[in-house]
Amino acid sequence: MNNPLLKEFTTPFGSAPFSSIKNDHFIPAFKSCIEDAKKAINEIVSNPEAPSFENTLVPLEFSGNQLNRVSSIFFNLNAAETNEEIQKIAQQVSPMLSEFANDISLNEDLFYRIKKVHSSKETLDLNPEQHMLLEKNYKAFVRNGANLNEEDKKKLREIDKKKSKLGLKFGENVLAETNKFELITTKKEDLSGLPEGVLEAAKMRADEKNIEGWLFTLDYPSYIPFMTYADNRNLREQMSKAFGSRGFQKNDFNNENIVKEIVTLRHQRARLLGYDSHAHYVLEERMAETPEKVNAFLSDLLSKAKPSAENEFQLIRDLALEDGIEKLEKWDSAYYSEKLKKLKFDLDDEKLKPYFKLENVIQGVFDIAKKLYDLNFKPVGNVDTYHKDVKTYEVTDSKGNFVALFYADFFPRKGKRNGAWMTSYKAQWKAGKMNSRPHISIVCNFTKPTETKPSLLTFNEVTTLFHEFGHALHGMMADTTYPNLSGTSVYWDFVELPSQILENWCFEKEALVMFARHYESNEPIPMELVQKIKDSSNFLEGIATLRQLSFGMLDMAYHSKNPSRIDTIKEFELEAFDSTQLYPDVKENCMSTAFSHIFQGGYSAGYYSYKWAEVLDADAFEAFKEKGIFNKSVATKFKENILSKGGTEKPMVLYKRFRGKEPSPDALLKRAGLLK
Predict the structure, then answer these.
(1) In this structure, are 629 and 495 located in the same domain?
(2) Looking at residue 601, what is its pLDDT?
(3) Domain that includes residue 603, residue range
(4) Does residue 154 lie within any of the structural domains?
(5) Could you give the number of structural domains in the chain?
(6) Residue 391: CB partners within 8 Å, gap ≥ 6?
(7) Shared domain check, 398 and 340
């Protein structure tokens, strides 16, 4: 078979040749790349020379390059453009990759060589990056069972195989439930309160499916505006319950047992490796270090945020009471929050959206990256993509040097999971005089253009775009020798710093005037609206903080104790949410069964890191505010010490080098209006 995945890509920038790739290319490619990687490992192991950094760690680091590229293409497609065939392939491929990962981490001869180099590290003249690579590899072996006996190694392999399949199944079920639900109405009165653009998009959705009337789905661009603006409370309830019951219905897509199995397997794995729990295992390689520290961090923020959250909740309840609503429910939350915002600030998303045409916001984030980091983005039409909606850009520096290839995929569709994320198709690395540059992508789910309107973003979508672009900058500006230390390959509670800090520019007048222009008149956003955005930046921050903390606490509840005590997922979740609950529980709903971050993504025992990184980002942004948000010397310092360094040194070392001190939570509390 002529398999494009097994050749060097001769495409522009060596980009993925999507249009040449067929689904039946993947399994042969995975098998072939795994065999090649195994041969490379055998060469390392059979080298008669004494183990050294150069003959062991370096070839090991580059041994899986082609396998990593094939994996990134396949799993990114499975997230952004999947179908039943790709999902079946994923179920076959994931155990193969788990098995191969275990073949490496349980290879005694390979571990012997790494251990030899590690035991003599003090006598070697290693730079910080080499030292980090050695430590990372040595720990990876120990943390993946290299010191286990044969019987326990076998158990570990079984656990990893099961775990990888369950994570995929969890995600498939959530996607199936999301796609399955449709709210169709032909009655004009059902649409009361919904803005014109939302109605037009719903009509377009219905027309695409040859359905009469208006169609609403659980995809974010449909679901969120419906919950925010629809006057019909019964329909909001219907939508809310459908969203909240994904994976929790008595059907083939139920995730309750999958959640139990995943947390049980994670716990068994951690115990097998000598850790008290999965959280103890995970946090050993995080800035937070221990579950005790994470729980103390979450509790401290909870004590500061809860009084504000309760006051804010009372304001929403009072407003709903004016409409005769005695008991405020979850499906009232977004609707009355928006009404309150309008009353308090005379500001609503519909007033802002005309100033946030997607193309202008993209250009704005590009211009901000140019002002801060001297990056230029040029659209390119000769790069292959997996869907016609995907845009591609060549990124260069001020001298015209190639920095990165950038993909952007913005609209929802059937084969794409909800949410927004940044990913990579190729890591950055160096070999000899070559600096091989990265291929970075961001994927979002924004409202599609209609016949009469371009894609207009809510302010929340603007911050989402900036957030993912912040991750993308971390990937694009990587400048390290080794691919596994490059870009976003950092401690998980540090990875959100580059993304979350960039959101701050969305609230600054100097930045907004660069891109916020009316899509029809091209008039810049009025200064009073800019001021209102600023004034409302911490609106309902107490409730938002409580919500994030509740997710972090649920995550820690699942992963810091023995999960055998979990009877039903729903009861366990309610117990974990007890201290953060404001709205009454909805018995038909369960958050855990669609909590993809921790059961499909990589955030298990790590969801707290969003809040952890907020402390870092608020403190880091203070440095910009002190000297000016476009100050070149501060931006250069951030680029040189954070964005380009990847995981080459410990995060706190890098942070202190940028900031000159450890971060203080005061900046976050002040920004959030929680510091009295």
Answers:
(1) yes
(2) 83
(3) 256-347+541-607
(4) no
(5) 4
(6) 379, 407, 408, 409, 410
(7) no
Rounded CA-CA distance 464/445 in Å is 10
289 and 311 housed in the same domain: yes
Q: Quote the pLDDT of residue 673.
A: 83
* 89-134 residue pLDDT tens: 999 999 999 999 989 988 999 999 999 999 999 999 999 999 999 9
Residues 243, 590: Cα–Cα separation, whole Å? 10
Give the CATH number, domain containing residue 480.
1.10.1370.40
Q: For residue 541, what are its two tokens?
A: 């921050």
Structure tokens at 335: 């609707």
Written as one string, the DSSP assignment of 379-448 is: E-SSS--SSTT-EEEEEE-TT--EEEEEEEE----TTS-SS-EEEEEE--EEETTEEEPPEEEEE--PPP
Place of tokens 């980009």: 15
Hey, how many other C-beta atoms are within 10 angstroms of the C-beta on 450? 17
Rg (CA), the chain: 25
- Ramachandran angles phi, psi of 198, nearest 5°: -65, -40
Rounded to an integer, the average pLDDT of 146-171 is 94
Torsion angles phi and psi, residue 320, rounded to 5: -65, -35
Encode 107-124: b = buried (16+ Cβ within 10 Å), e = exposed.
Answer: beebbebbbebbeeeeee
Average pLDDT, integer, range 4-14: 94
Query: Do 100 and 42 belong to one domain?
Result: yes
Mean per-residue pLDDT for 476-485? Answer: 97
Q: How confident is the model at residue 676 (pLDDT cuts 50, 70, 90)?
A: low
Q: How confident is the model at residue 1 (pLDDT cuts 50, 70, 90)?
A: low
**The amino acid at 576:** A
Domain ends where: 204, 223, 244? 244
Do 264 and 400 reside in the same domain of the chain?
no
Please state the pTM of the whole predicted model.
0.88
The tokens for 528 are 């009073």
Residue 176 forms part of a structural domain? no
Mean pLDDT computed over 534-539? 90
Q: Distance between CA 385 and CA 11 in Å, rounded?
A: 12
468 assigned to active site: yes
Q: What is the pLDDT of residues 354-399, one digit of tens each?
A: 999 999 999 999 999 999 999 999 999 999 999 999 999 999 999 9
- Active-site residue identified among 177, 350, 394, 468: 468
